[in-house]
Write the structure tokens for this entry.
Amino acid sequence: MPTLEEYAGLPVDLAGARIAFRDQLPAVEPAVRRREEMREVLADPLGSGPDELYYMYRGVGYAAGREALTARGLRYDITVLRPGTVGTEYIKTAGHYHSPVPGGGPPGWPAGTEFTYPELYEVLHGVAHYLLQRVNQAQDLAEDVILVEARPGDRLLVPPGYGHITINPGREPLVMCNLVEATFRSVYDPIVRMKGGAYYEVLEGGRPIFVSNETYRDVAELRSQAPTSPEVLGVPDDTPLYRLAVADPGRFAYLVHPREFRGEWIAG
């Protein structure tokens, strides 16, 4: 049973495609995303695959740690994606946008682009493909689409204005944690309406490829980007995200108050 403690900073192990809690860490019952619930966003809505695709453990941590985060408006979660495909498409999350930040974006924020809550991810096990997209909803145009490949210890800051989907292209379960504003709302409808993200990652000829989603009127060319650097985040990369957040949640205030971010958020 692989342990995840090195990267998670918590006594958790990977038991199959689920999390096992030990050393008196309070167990969390996951929300389960099933294939039938994902039909509307799949490349092949009738494709066969596992019944259960991924597991969402919300509010993970010791009581004192959860209280410290909650007091600063933050929440720490762990998600596990099974390996495999549905039809030929690699297993992925449903994808969503975040609810808008009250008061809108900072000065200079592009008109017509909602200023949404950011989110910080860290990979704990496996390989992640994060697909980020900024879409002109009124015209169904995917104006910017980014692919980030991340491995254990890598972090990704999803900026305001971007929807995101996580894909597991590997042969092992993908385990990732996230730190986010505690009361934000996931907005699924725009991705459901477009039958998924701007691209699908599928297995073709024995290798993974990305194919564009023809429901969009136009899709920007997929561009690659490295995981977010420690310099941008302002935190060391050799300490698990959970421990950093519990020790000093104020370092992550930009997730709760993104208008006050030390730099300017850039849409694009």
Summary: The longest helix spans residues 63-71. The first strand starts at residue 12 and ends at 15.
